[in-house]
Amino acid sequence: MLQAIGHILPIALAAAISSVPILATLVILLSPEHSRTSIPYLISWVVGIAVVVSVCTIAAQLLPTPAGPRKQDDAVGVAEIVAGLALAVVAVLSWRRARREPEAETPKWLNKVGTLHPGAVFGLGLLLNVRPKAILLAVAAGLALHAESLAFDESVITIAIYTAIAASTVVVPIIAAVADPGRMEPRLRSAHAWLRSNGSAMTSLILLVVAFAVIGSGLARF
User: Fold this and answer.
1) Tens of pLDDT along 108-164?
2) Global pTM?
3) Which residue range(s) make up the domain with 39?
4) Among 121, 135, 148, 214, which is most buried by a count of CB atoms within 10 Å?
5) Which helix (H) or strand (E) holds 125?
6) Residue 137, CA atoms < 13 Å, CB-side half-sphere
7) How far apart, in Å, are the Cα atoms of 47 and each of 2, 95, 149, 173, 184?
8) What's the count of helices (H) and strands (E) in the chain, helices before strands?
9) Helix (H), strand (E) at residue 220
10) Under a CB-based contact definition with an 8 Å cutoff, are residues 52 and 136 in contact?
């Protein structure tokens, strides 16, 4: 199980340092309705991560595996290389977009997140977990878990660790803001301004590093 945790740690970190869900969190917390919408968003974000990575882990069990002593490792290796290459493409495209339009990297719909009602915010938290980037990271995590042939309880624990790390950058600010909104507000505004200019580039760089790690893990299985 420890080896599986080691494989998913960088993937979970890349999922955590994703600018869009963090920016959505900051917009929600800086909105007048934050006391009604922040907790539903937190819950849906955590549930969404856990569900998507669980589905990807289960789907990895369906990976075609030809007969042979090392054929499972070979099949997982190929799948990891494909997932890693897809992550690299997403990272490069995101980086180029951030470099070309540094001030236009925040989606316009984010400005309206603060006006949503609790039900819509809950749906947003779930929806953000089915972005291509989020799904590719979940696929990489699911393949890593499948390759280790973990028992059911070990898989549950490992998925819980992945979820806790991936959700931390949303959960921690929300809990801190709920506990002490006055003290957190200037920090939230500062973080929001910084992420608008640098978040996409930072996410792209980390995603590219993780993409190479996933590709390397796939190559090592042959």
Assistant:
1) 777 788 888 889 999 999 999 999 889 999 999 998 888 777 888 888 999 999 999
2) 0.85
3) 2-220
4) 214
5) helix 118-127
6) 34
7) 24, 29, 24, 17, 25
8) 8, 0
9) helix 181-220
10) no
